[in-house]
Amino acid sequence: MTQTTPDDLRSVIAGERLDRADKPLISTNPARTGEVLAEVSLAGRAEFTAACRAAKEAQRAWAAVPAPIRGQVIGNIGDLVAANKEALARAVTRDIGKTLGEARGEVQEIIDTCEFFRGEGRRLYGQTVPSEMPDKQLFAFRNPLGAAAIITAGNFPVAVPSWYIVPALLTGNTVVWKPAEYAASCSWAFYELFSRAGLPKGVLNLVYADGEETFAGLEQALGEGLVDKVGFTGSSAVGTRIGELCGRHLQTPCLELGGKNPMVVTEDADLDLAVEGALFSGFGTAGQRCTSLGTAIVHESVHQAFLERFAAATAAAPVGDPTRDVLYGPMISERFADRYEGYLDWISGHHRVLGSTATGRITADAPREGFVGDPADGLFYHPVILAGVRPEDRVFTEETFGPIVGVASYRHLEEAIELADLPGYGLSCSIYTTDPKKAFAFRSGIGAGMVSVNNSTSGAEAHLPFGGNGRSGNGGRLSGLWVLDQFTRWQSMNWDYSGRLQKAQMDVVEIDADLGFRLD
Description:
By secondary structure, the protein is an alpha/beta fold. It is about 35% helix and about 20% strand. The strands form 6 sheets. The protein has a 7-stranded mixed beta sheet with strand order 15-16-17-14-13-19-20, sandwiched between helices. Homotetramer. One of its GO terms (molecular function) is aldehyde dehydrogenase (NAD+) activity.
């Protein structure tokens, strides 16, 4: 089918679109801010709670659908996304300014996730466990949790939602999805594809709402017992609030939060490869990934050589129109552009700024050499490399969501690991080295949930656990088999067919053994 983005975007609860708002949110293209993409009617807390109620009411019937059939629905979703890959990728690029190449990769992530879980409906294995008693069998089953509220950010507006929604649906849960309102158009396209794959009404509900109304609606829904699982991807500050709220209801949310991801470059590293990795992970998506490179921690013996090569590569990289061949496009929205300008205030006198002809927004008065397109069209910002970053600097300890990368030095690997862990985040990290011993020492010492060797800090695959620790999350993992633990709970069953009451730990066969025996 040909996917078109509607101008009038509204929430959908149990298959019914809500009324149009009197003053809808105007959604624009960040690469061409004069281009209006859609008018988005934002729902309130009552509508969010109503969506949770609809999901709860639909859940038992959906869970009763045999798991292999639910798997077929997931397969249908994957096939629909594959058939609409280019249209969905272009919707992502229009919505958030991600380059077409990266947007296509993001859509492929949905397809890969569906491909993985397509067959999982036939493999939702439980366990048969031997009993300590005769004529008795023990079993363990995976059961769905119920209704899940999924709240996602807009920097990966279609890939990350699929990491939650696909396994949630596969395992028999129903979903209320609250996408980022600034990525409304591609979220609608995502919903349209999912809704045509065979999902009954109420199984997947879409709610456009701002953050405070969503939080209030979630609080109400949890209080009424309508939500059994919360998944959230976004900032550490908001994740903390959601974690506190869920804790009051004895629930453990899946929290995927921010990152200050380090890249360690050892004295034996392939510097050209390390620079390539730093360029992509530091400035891809304009540095607006939770896995973006925060600080390159470089051995003192190669620090200057790395810095020179990294600065030259960054200065030469094309920036601009995301539909063309560029390293990155605009900031996602005005909100993120304003926040990024605040991070630039953290630049201090002891820092040396490299990588571009200016800092801040790219304009006619502050041009970027080699800019692709017209910078006046959108929210385009200069890439920034900060040399001389110190552990006490805010640019070292805090997440900086935007195209800014710090560079620090170290003398021995233990110091590099200590510096890498210092900010307290623990999402992603990488090490560039040709020494396997250093690679494994780094892996065992670092606190991050994901480690790359001779690869960038960004780049997840659909069948490997994704998630962070510390300020980056509460230990939950998405992707692969590991995400099943987020959307199912184990139920044990014992079946005694002996015809008599056998009491565990009491009516147990006793074995005679001569444990004092010794060989001469």
